[in-house]
Amino acid sequence: MITSHRIALVAGRELRAERRQPDGVVAAVTFIAVLVLLESLVVGPQIAREADVAAALFWLALAFATILATMRSFDRELEDDALEGLVALPGGRDALFGGKVLSLAIVLLLVAAVGGILSIVLLDLRIALPVHLLVVVLLGVLALPPIVVVDVVLALRLRARAALVPILALPVLVPQLVAATRGTSAALQGDAVGALSWAGLLFAFAVVYTVIGLTIVPAAIE
Amino acid sequence: MRTVQSGASLHDATVVLDDRVILRAVNLVVGPGLTLVRGPNGSGKTTLLRALAGLVPLARGDRRASGDVLFIGHRPMLLRGLTARENLEFFVRFRGGDTRGIDGALRAWGVGEDMDRPVERLSAGERRRAALARVETERVPLVLLDEPFADLDDAGANRLRQTIARLGDEVRSVVIATHAHRELDELAKAQIAIDGGAARAA
Question: Is any Cβ of chain A less than 8 angstroms from the Cβ of B55?
Answer without folding.
Answer: yes
